[in-house]
Amino acid sequence: MLIVRPINDQDLDKLFELASKTGGGMTSMPADYKLLEKRISTSVQSCKGDSNDNDSNTYFMVLEDVDSGDLVGTTAIYTNIGRDHPFYSYKVMRVTQRCAELNKVQETKLLTLTNDYTGTTEIGSLFLLPEYRFGGNGSLLSRSRYMVINNHPDKFSDKIIAEMRGYRDENDRSPVWDHLGVHFFGMAFDEADVMSGIGDNSFVADLMPKYPIYIDLLNSQARDAIGKIFSATAPALRMLEKEGFHYNDYVDIFDGGPTVEVYRENIVTIKNTKTLTISRFQELPETKNKMLVSTKSLIDFKACLADVLIKGDDVIISESLAIILGVGLGDQLSIAPGRAG
What we know:
This protein is of the alpha+beta class and 341 residues long. It is built from 10 helices and 16 strands.
């Protein structure tokens, strides 16, 4: 069985091993012991509630193969983004100009640097080993975040966002960076991306253009890439769209990838989640209609896909599942349909 749970101090070596398999495309999880140790410590403190809910907290979770003990995936929730370090986006603005003398109307698009998402909650750091990308494992990893948010709504903002990786061409290059960003930063895309991913983004405020940029003046490849995703990101975007996330004309300042957003109350998994009380243990037959099940605790959070039997406000689960989840009779579980849509 696979379960999603918060990272803990004992996971450092296994997390490093997992980070080494990401291929370098995940800047929020570099294969660096010191940075990963800091990330674990920050998450553990957040889950313990050792920080103020107005602070920027990180809830970093892993997907664990219970049978082997291996870590096979990661995901995270970041609260109050932009409070500790500025969070920048480009807003795609539309300006319409009219010339009565020539009877001509001209619409122009601009990129305007903003901090509009400051204080919101961001979900990200979604990674799953290729050999585990089947049977709803990716969905479990992604949707476990909504179970945490549903269980503890006071810790998260009303608006939830997710940044999508931007388009890269057949040469694995970002047209938006090559025809825009590089002129202001004077460094390689990967270097800027890593610096931003680990929170060292003061250089953005120092070097980014302070005035709107006319999109029509950019190279055609860069224009077409604004708001376009990297091909491998498509499955993750589809999962988000099923939950109600949508694009609202904000893009990443480096690669032009779209940022999608949703109000917490409109997330499909949250709308369909019920809190039920464990009334009995019973061995249940294996089915294809598994439910998304999670514990209510934050520090001891666990989520999985499992067969359960719902009776009104009660739920019957197997004793083996109870042991894995660390729950007993009379405890409450959050339960949602196994699929978002």
